[in-house]
Design a protein that fits this description.
The chain is an alpha/beta fold. It contains twelve helices and eight strands. The chain has helices at 3-16, 22-36, 40-53, 71-86, 104-116, 128-132, 139-157, 169-181, 212-221, 232-239, 249-261, 267-274; strands at 62-67, 92-99, 121-125, 162-164, 192-194, 202-204, 285-288, 291-294. The strands form two sheets. Strands 3-2-1-4-6-5 form a six-stranded mixed beta sheet, sandwiched between helices. Strands 7-8 form a two-stranded antiparallel sheet. It is globular and about 70 Å long.
Length: 299
């Protein structure tokens, strides 16, 4: 066996996880096969297209796949395992789980799903839920920012140069609408970003072109159960008898897009392409490299 073959075998074993009982192992293989076969058009092709179109993975990368316990990050982990097995590039994978203060049942569900799916997770703990518990304004934003910092720091400790997050196509178009309707600006969730606080680190979003409905279909096809938002705000709302569905601006965007779909079947694609086809000749102003510009500058 050549040195390159040994390295590839090591990467695959690292990504594959521990050996399971025969029945559980067969179910895991069925779930893996379905990504490439049953859901080839809906999941695998958009996943590979995003990798290629946005140059998300390069030879020699060491990538920390960040797992929250939800359907998106668990599917991302499986897709990354499959592209390592079947792709042409050599890269390393780690699967990183941050426990920000989950209750024991939620922590256990993440561990059981990881075992079922053959994902060898590394779990570290933080105190983020306690840190944002008394924050009145934008606790979700603060929580997300703090999570990101912890993930970067722990990924770097593992020797990684990239973190991979499970954001999907619907997250992208919801962000576009939110930025317009609530932020008074036009921007979106980018497929990759360089970290401003962790030099040499990068964030990638390999599910960028995969639609949430197809992720749900994959989940339901296999009868899988994943965490929803497991933060204390959601748990408190559920305990109070609230559904939690109307607590966020992002949920408002989901409902707005659903209404748009009844009018125009191409609405999702059009929203997405709006940030690919920005016409600066028809913009009153724009921001570039932190500097604000006005159309009168060159009128």
């Amino acid at each position: 066996m050549t040195e390159q073959q040994e390295q590839r075998t090591g990467n695959q074993e690292e990504a594959a996880g521990p050996t399971k009982a025969a029945g559980a192992d067969e179910r895991c293989r069925e779930i893996e096969r379905s990504i490439i076969k049953t859901f080839r058009k809906e999941i695998w092709r958009p996943f590979v297209k995003a990798l290629n179109e946005y140059d998300l993975i390069r030879e020699g990368d060491r990538i920390a796949v960040c797992i929250s316990g939800g359907k998106d990050s668990m599917l991302l982990a499986k897709c990354m395992q499959e592209i390592l097995r079947h792709g042409k590039m050599e890269f390393g994978l780690h699967f990183l789980v941050m426990d920000p203060g989950y209750n024991p049942a939620n922590r256990r569900q993440i561990e059981e799903n990881a075992d079922l799916l053959g994902i060898p997770v590394t779990i570290f703990e933080s105190d983020i839920f306690n840190a944002v518990a008394d924050v009145d304004q934008s606790p979700c934003y603060l929580c997300a920012r703090m999570r990101r910092g912890h993930l970067y720091a722990n990924a770097r400790r593992l020797g990684c140069n990239k973190i991979a997050l499970g954001h999907h196509f619907d997250d992208v178009i919801e962000t576009i609408l939110m930025s317009m309707l609530y932020g008074a600006q036009v921007n979106t969730m980018m497929p990759k970003l360089r970290s401003t606080n962790f030099e040499g680190m990068e964030l990638i979003r390999p599910l960028y072109l995969v639609k949430e409905a197809d992720i749900l279909a994959w989940k339901e096809f296999h009868g899988l159960t994943f965490l929803q938002c497991a933060c204390r705000f959601t748990e408190a709302a559920e305990a109070a008898g609230l559904t939690g569905d109307h607590l966020s601006k992002r949920q408002e965007m989901k409902e707005l897009i659903n209404r748009f779909r009844t009018i125009n079947s191409h609405i999702e694609t059009n929203i997405f392409k709006s940030v690919e086809n920005v016409n600066l000749d028809a913009c009153i102003g724009y921001v570039k490299d932190g500097a604000r510009h006005h159309f009168l500058e060159n009128y």
